[in-house]
Specification:
The chain is 81% helix and 0% strand. The protein is mainly α and 85 residues long. It is elongated. The two termini are 31 Å apart.
Length: 85
C-alpha cells in the first residue's frame, strides 16, 4: 500500500509539473491566443506558472528524498528528465 500511495503522489506531481510547463509553452509560443481582458500581463502569468512548477517540483523532490528507496530514486530521476523533454 505504501508503494502504491507514493507512486500515485509521484505521478500526480509529475502530471501537474507537465501541465504548468505546457501552460508556459503556450504563453511563450502564442501569447496572442490568450484573451487580453483575462491576461494583460503575460510576464506575470508566466511567473505564476513557474512558481507552481517550482512548488510541485519541490514536493516531488521531498517525496523522493525522504520516502522512497534509493533504487526508486534513480527511476524517478529518469522520469523527471523525460517530463522536461
Amino acid at each position: 500500500m505504501r508503494e502504491l500511495l507514493i507512486g500515485a503522489a509521484r505521478t500526480y506531481y509529475i502530471g501537474l509539473i507537465n501541465k504548468h510547463i505546457s501552460n508556459v509553452e503556450v504563453l511563450l509560443n502564442n501569447p496572442a491566443g490568450i484573451g487580453e481582458a483575462e491576461h494583460q500581463d503575460i510576464q506575470a502569468v508566466i511567473e505564476v506558472e513557474l512558481g507552481r512548477i517550482a512548488d510541485y517540483n519541490d514536493k516531488l523532490e521531498v517525496l523522493i528524498k525522504y520516502f522512497t528507496k534509493p533504487q526508486q530514486n534513480e527511476t524517478t530521476e529518469e522520469k523527471k528528465k523525460d517530463a522536461k523533454s
